[in-house]
Amino acid sequence: MPRLMGSALTAETGLIGRFRTLLGDDAVIVTAAEMEGFVEDFRGRYRGAALCVVHPSSTEQVAAVVRACAAQGVPMLAQGGNTSLCGGAVPAADGTPPVIISLARMRRIRRIDAANGSMEVEAGCVLETVQNAAAEVGRLYPVSLGAEGSCQIGGTLSTNAGGTSVLRYGNTRENVLGLEVVMADGTIWNGLRALRKDNTGIDLKQLFIGAEGTLGIVTAATLKLHPLPTHHALAWFAPTDPQAARQVLGLFQANCGARLTAFELMNARQLQLVVEHVTDRRQPLEGAHDWHVLVELADTQGAADMEAALQTTLEQAVEAGLVEDAIVASSDRQRAALWDIRHSVTEANKKAGVGLTTDCAVPVSAVPAFIEQATQAVRALDPQIDVVIVGHMGDGNIHFIPMYPFDVWRALADATATGAAMRRGVNDAAHALGGTFSAEHGIGQTGLPEMAHYKSGAELSIMRAVKAALDPRNLMNPGRLIPDPLH
Amino acid sequence: MPRLMGSALTAETGLIGRFRTLLGDDAVIVTAAEMEGFVEDFRGRYRGAALCVVHPSSTEQVAAVVRACAAQGVPMLAQGGNTSLCGGAVPAADGTPPVIISLARMRRIRRIDAANGSMEVEAGCVLETVQNAAAEVGRLYPVSLGAEGSCQIGGTLSTNAGGTSVLRYGNTRENVLGLEVVMADGTIWNGLRALRKDNTGIDLKQLFIGAEGTLGIVTAATLKLHPLPTHHALAWFAPTDPQAARQVLGLFQANCGARLTAFELMNARQLQLVVEHVTDRRQPLEGAHDWHVLVELADTQGAADMEAALQTTLEQAVEAGLVEDAIVASSDRQRAALWDIRHSVTEANKKAGVGLTTDCAVPVSAVPAFIEQATQAVRALDPQIDVVIVGHMGDGNIHFIPMYPFDVWRALADATATGAAMRRGVNDAAHALGGTFSAEHGIGQTGLPEMAHYKSGAELSIMRAVKAALDPRNLMNPGRLIPDPLH
After folding, report:
1. Over the stretch B377-397, which tens digit does the pLDDT of each residue have?
2. Separation of alpha carbons B245 and B297, rounded Å
3. CATH 3.40.50.720 fits B231-346, yes or no
4. B435–A210: do the CB atoms touch at under 8 Å?
5. Region B343-359 average pLDDT
6. Smallest Cα–Cα separation from A193: which of B206, B434, B210?
């Protein structure tokens, strides 16, 4: 049975009937058991209630659902693969239970134009499906991240997903040419252009990318494809410290230009957790080193050239005293094994304890200072705290993770307050350096207090004005992204 | 003397006095003679009247000017280098004369962070100054276009300027990390972040990029810098036709990946006009060819590799029957001479006659069809019309230019109507192929009827809602970008 607010019972029952008429009975889910996977996030940290879950199969059906909700003033929450790390994809524990509009049945790849480097897909396509479809025509859709096997394109668009290819290809925002959006009143905006250049008025698609469903529901997109790099060269090295890592990044940028594709940093503690907690993961270098970097070059040809460039650059770095040790992957198998270490951090950290994941970015030049100052901040709160660091150093995006053993966490007097204080300490360090508290994860539920705390009044006012203009009754994913939207 | 509307005389005189107090006497221009360079565009095609021209030197002064105008309901027009090709930077011939807010005195480079690849500059900095300052620290600011010696950063941001580097580096939009904007009520929004990743709410800077000053006045920006390519390889070749040019583009993308920096197409007529009308320009290839392409690769190293890649790719193309003839530049001098041909088209076309410049983009795959269908459209109107074609083929952006000898143009019964019909024919051809009527020039005054004609009601409604939210009294550059903004 859906959870209903007593007084609204009749109207809401009417709404569910309307959905059944519009979409068919099998596309409307109302029982608690069936709604289970939609009202709780995949890590089991956020849980809310929904009026029902609907599964439209077309843009027109989404529009009809939105119109029906709007007519009764019922809030809506668009959901993709439900892989948000900050409670962005499930209803809040309080507030009016929304209609969850799942995009999962809208999963057609409508069109691929390899010559134009573009691809029109529906919002419910799984990211990996899109990557594979592009690769089949010799093209690359570059957005790549841990959840790519289950997250949906609509979700990656609404959160402007980052990942491990941002250094070279940019965030999701930079890989979108056009959007189709259902607005708060049910109007369909067709902005599915496949153009590299189009200067005709306000670039509306930018509003919906990263808006987390608060301004409208993305139903389809035209994505930008790139030439598919078929040759890769990868190295793992130990910089003497984060400052040295930054200098080596500079060497790679100078020597390898646009072929530089990844530059991922982790500290010794992060590597140790992966080796301890994930099967078949081994230390890549001999001896103990405080810091580790995975660096990758990619191109459409010239593997030998790239390996030579890697080798030369690392030799320069060793000579300059910036690097303690390094290996260059000599086979695809070795390359995959090194990437496996990087991709295992989430699994390892989940097994190792309670990690207070943060998602700061600072200017790349400020990464060493950020790591130092964030460490001081959390050690001031707890001198024993374990600090795990992993990040996309090339983008200045460092996941700084204070980590508690499970038993220590359980023994804390007020774990929630401790967690909030720790995160605030890390975020303050980033903010002081011109950085952000959310580089790629978005706001969801977790980030709302941080929005209110760090954003200027001017910035919040502009956001509220835009929100009020496009969703005047605050029905689209209310309680997300913008604090007090009707302020 | 400023042109004043009779009834508003006192209030407006008061406003000028207020500006003098705020900015100093030398920063307020009111005589017709001194305003001359601000009220007419550089080609002498658009002319309007202004209440006065003010020259604020700081963001706070801009904000004070905006507040003063807002208090009296006087419209404002922000002006940069006045190099718009569509009347975007000067007042309209009709309507209330605005206060022109020149950003020319705001020309400080506030900060360069080479390690972060970022640079904070004020809106009045000339584009070339910015390019040079970046190069001095070994970095590239990639936006490059004909007017770079006089256009200002604020103008390039407000129009999302394109140019010859878009293929590799994207438009201006993709090279901006942060903005500082004075809003319609005089509030200053400081969004000068220097971050590669920041997912904290609506990405407000996107609203102002390309908004042509209708939502606020950009006073400063944090620009994205890239590694400076120090090695270049360039070729000029004659593809058999546009379809062959498109296929050769595909070969270059496959063989040269991210090093491909320019792929510029022109027809024989365009080349002929350059050779005839500009001193020291010569045909680069022997014999007659219908189509010409300039292709350039650039990287931070490996000039020999790039020349080899150029050579190999062109040989493949010749073997496949796609290319009639080709030369690879063998020196920097030769390279510069070939670029000089490309950069001389505006001068040549100005001398050759009256060119009805258009600025369409279509999907790259549709460029051959666009050229064919646009040619049919204009020949249907005038079988004798001379067709000049030059464009950024790699972006699908083709400047298709019906060209009249001066005497023929003057003899036309209704030149304005003929020009409009010709342009509409070209734009229709682009629109039918999913293209746009303005790829990089923007809307200004010329494009407003096209906005009303081609944009969907849904799209215009969203733009109007955003405009009304941020500039409810329509005082920021009224009569631009959005038709009937208070509709």
Report:
1. 999 999 999 999 999 999 999
2. 16
3. no
4. no
5. 94
6. B434
Q: What are the angstrom distances between the C-alpha of A119 and each of A46, A152, A176?
A: 34, 15, 10
CATH level 3 topology of A231-344: Alpha-Beta Plaits (3.30.70)
Chain A to chain B Cβ contacts (< 8 Å): 287
Cβ-defined contact of A211 to B200 (cutoff 8 Å): no
- A183/B466 Cβ within 8 A: no
The answer to whether the B6-102 and B231-346 domains have the same CATH topology is no
Contact (CB, 8 A) for A183 and B458: yes
Q: What is the CATH number of domain A109-227?
A: 3.30.465.10
Does the domain at A353-432 match CATH 3.30.70.2740? Answer given as: yes
Neighbours of B51 (CB within 10 A): 28
Domain boundaries, chain B: 6-102, 109-227, 231-346, 353-432
Model ipTM? 0.95
Secondary structure element (H or E) that encloses residue A267, with its range: strand A260-267
**pLDDT per position as a tens digit, B35-56:** 999 999 988 889 999 999 999 9
**DSSP E strand stretches across B240-288:** 260-267
Long-range CB contacts (< 8 A, 24+ apart) of A273-277? Answer: A273/A345, A273/A348, A273/A349, A273/A352, A273/A388, A274/A341, A274/A344, A274/A345, A274/A348, A276/A348, A276/A352, A277/A347, A277/A348, A277/A351, A277/A352
Q: Is the dihedral of CA A70, A73, A79, A84 positive or negative?
A: positive
DSSP symbol at A446: T
Checking if the pLDDT of A228 tops 60, the result is yes
Q: Residues B175-200: pLDDT tens digits?
A: 999 999 999 999 999 999 999 999 99
Nearest by CB: B365 against A116, A183, A459: A116
